[in-house]
Amino acid sequence: MKNIGKNLYLGIDIGASNTKFIIISGKNIKTFEKFHLSTPHNKRKLVDFIVAQIKSLEIKYRTKFAGVGVAFAGIINSSGTTILHSPNIRELDNFPLLRKLSVALDRRYILNNDANVFAFAEALAGAAKGVSRVAGITLGTGMGGGLVVNQVLEKGAHGGSAEIGHTIINPGGIKCSCGGWGHFEEHLSARAIRRHGVKTQEELAQRAGAGNKKAKAGFADMVAYLGYALANIVNFWDPEIIVIGGGIAEDADLLLKKAAQAAKKDIVSPEARAALKVKKAKLGEYAGAMGAALLAIKK
């Protein structure tokens, strides 16, 4: 492949099963390539795996990446260098990923939480493009969130903002994967769906529609809890739009519609209630990788 310039950025979204890669230009956010590979669950192998992909892609495109953004499903420290807690790959707890990558290959890296960069991508190039105040929610293996104001990602004072999935809705309720109890995530994640006796939200909705009593109760439960989450976000942060993505949201138009309707009864401000806007994400499964690359551009 011929040299296409030095304005390319690589986005990497490290998931429990797969790691997604996307290459975009810094000028017009044009996507050149995207693909996914299985994620190694060993610290050294993960670093070697990422470095090998960077080197291979730089050879292919005959250029050095201007920046590499890395998204990860877990708690990142405030300086954006270390994975403090990894719920899906426990070996990566307290792992200084950026330092290890920099030692192995000197590049300009950015590390952030996957739900944060999802919201960032949707705010800059997706369902919330052009909107000033954006809240994002991801529903999948877990439940995450992100906040964006005027195209700037809100990290919080210690890097822990927007953890909507780990806010408490049922004190003393179901034990969460993080070790806490009664969190939203245990009612709005893949684990929650499996507790209702099905594998996907779409299957749950279909069975509920067909009159299955257990499925109807399960679907109503998800509608209620997502409604509570939406109302809580509006009452606390008052966004212009809430964008919902992740594997569960892909075929969840009915769930999102009913949850938005349910949320209105619990929104305090009449103006915020009337203006409530909930949209399904636009960028699909590569939104996290895209957001990581966009964050590298902005930084």
Explain briefly what this protein structure is.
This protein is α/β, with parallel strands linked by helices.
Structure, described:
This is Glucokinase. It holds the Pfam family ROK. Belongs to the ROK (NagC/XylR) family. One of its GO terms (molecular function) is N-acylmannosamine kinase activity. With 299 residues, the protein is of the alpha/beta class. It folds into 2 domains: 8-116 and 286-298, ATPase, nucleotide binding domain (Nucleotidyltransferase, domain 5, 2-Layer Sandwich), CATH 3.30.420.40; 130-281, Nucleotidyltransferase, domain 5 (2-Layer Sandwich). The chain has 9 helices and 12 strands. The strands form 3 sheets. A 5-stranded mixed beta sheet has the order 3-2-1-4-7. Strands 10-9-8-11-12 form a 5-stranded mixed beta sheet, with helices on both faces. A hairpin with a 6-residue loop joins strand 5 and strand 6. Helix 3 (114-125) packs across helix 9 (287-298) and helix 5 (201-209) packs across helix 6 (213-237). The chain is globular and about 55 Å long. The mean pLDDT is 95.
